[in-house]
């Protein structure tokens, strides 16, 4: 007859097996660093990114030094939206790479993997015209019109004219006509009319729409951008 081990004997045997297992070693610091970098890359490339406002071209909506969060998914561009975009090819004049050395090229390549293009020039402006729109400045009442419809640009500072520079453009499909809210001090689509592309920014260059200003704390607030400009009739 085979004897059945008692409960205490089985417990002792299980304890011996556990004691023979090697203790798990903590991951080395470099593994934690790599995981942190991967997490940052995923967040920056696919979730959201923080941007800093370096100039006064969007005053009074955005002030110099404002920091804002820009999601990278689930947004549809509409008339009146504020957008952050990569203007390297359009507004930036397609500059030559700033890192020409071997080490610089390595740094640039690593940066791109983590969503940081050292040659990228980001801008923030407002969408005035979209693909197919006929945008004109200005009508008899000094208002910008989109497809013959005057814009009520309530986000402009009191007394600010919609534009001191006249223009009459048709926006190509897949492109945007962008202007800063500080019309007297904004190098926007108007300033690039004579450049290749005529100041039009491809929709594919848009990084996202800012939704939250988190710094300075005194100006902590949501960023709402679609209430002032009516959609233009096609």
Automatic annotation (TrEMBL):
The keyword Transmembrane applies. The chain crosses the membrane at residues 27-47. Residues 30-215 form the Peptidase S26 domain. Its EC number is 3.4.21.89. Residues 1-12 have a biased composition (Low complexity). One of its GO terms (cellular component) is plasma membrane. Residues 1-21 are annotated as: Disordered. One of its GO terms (molecular function) is serine-type endopeptidase activity. It is an enzyme of class 3 (hydrolase). It is a single-pass type II membrane protein. One of its GO terms (biological process) is signal peptide processing. InterPro entries: LexA/Signal_pep-like_sf, Pept_S26A_signal_pept_1, Pept_S26A_signal_pept_1_Ser-AS, Peptidase_S26. PANTHER family: CHLOROPLAST PROCESSING PEPTIDASE, SIGNAL PEPTIDASE I. Belongs to the peptidase S26 family. This is Signal peptidase I. It comes from Nostocoides jenkinsii Ben 74.
């Amino acid at each position: 007859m085979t004897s059945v081990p008692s409960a205490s004997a089985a417990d002792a045997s299980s304890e011996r097996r556990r004691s023979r297992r090697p203790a798990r070693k903590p991951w080395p610091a470099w593994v934690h660093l790599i995981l942190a970098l991967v997490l940052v890359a995923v967040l920056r490339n696919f979730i959201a990114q923080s941007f800093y406002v370096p100039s006064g071209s969007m005053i009074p909506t955005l002030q110099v030094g404002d920091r804002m969060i820009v999601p990278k998914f689930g947004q549809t561009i509409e008339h009146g939206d504020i957008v952050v975009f990569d203007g390297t090819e359009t507004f930036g004049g397609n500059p030559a790479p700033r890192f020409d050395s071997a080490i610089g090229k390595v740094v640039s390549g690593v940066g791109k993997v983590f969503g940081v293009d050292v040659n990228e020039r980001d801008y923030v402006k407002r969408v005035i015209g979209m693909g197919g729109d006929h945008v004109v400045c200005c009508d008899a009442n000094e208002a910008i019109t989109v497809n013959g419809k005057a814009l009520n640009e309530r986000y402009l500072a009191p007394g600010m004219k919609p534009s001191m520079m006249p223009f009459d453009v048709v926006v190509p499909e897949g492109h945007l006509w962008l202007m800063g809210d500080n019309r007297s001090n904004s190098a926007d689509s108007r300033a690039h009319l004579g450049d290749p592309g005529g100041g039009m920014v491809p929709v594919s260059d848009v990084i996202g729409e800012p939704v939250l200003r988190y710094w300075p704390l005194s100006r902590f607030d949501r960023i709402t951008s679609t209430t002032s400009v009516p959609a233009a009739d096609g």
